[in-house]
């Protein structure tokens, strides 16, 4: 019998070339407050409501032996996409690009009732900026 207690989603880890720069970039480009940047500069966190956005170096000794080396994809799109929900997607897109994000696709209304735009972060990860889906 399955437990009725669902776990709380704690955080998403973004592997970065430079943790300190990525934390600063996400804070400025997407409007998140820095929650923590450790003295070693190998771990950083941003406040994002009920969960945390965490950053750690691409070369992560703690998990490399267990799960393998982190590799930057050699194709157009990585296997993960970070999505942020905004009430004003146009303003969020503009802010992101003004703060170093690379524009991929300008915000547009989608047939399912959401406005969506795409950018890449300073490590090339795709970031989706979208409005809450209207029901």
From TrEMBL:
<protein>
    <recommendedName>
        <fullName>VOC domain-containing protein</fullName>
    </recommendedName>
</protein>
<feature type="domain" description="VOC">
    <location>
        <begin position="8"/>
        <end position="132"/>
    </location>
</feature>
<dbReference type="Pfam" id="PF00903">
    <property type="entry name" value="Glyoxalase"/>
</dbReference>
<dbReference type="InterPro" id="IPR037523">
    <property type="entry name" value="VOC_core"/>
</dbReference>
<dbReference type="InterPro" id="IPR004360">
    <property type="entry name" value="Glyas_Fos-R_dOase_dom"/>
</dbReference>
<dbReference type="InterPro" id="IPR050383">
    <property type="entry name" value="GlyoxalaseI/FosfomycinResist"/>
</dbReference>
<dbReference type="InterPro" id="IPR029068">
    <property type="entry name" value="Glyas_Bleomycin-R_OHBP_Dase"/>
</dbReference>
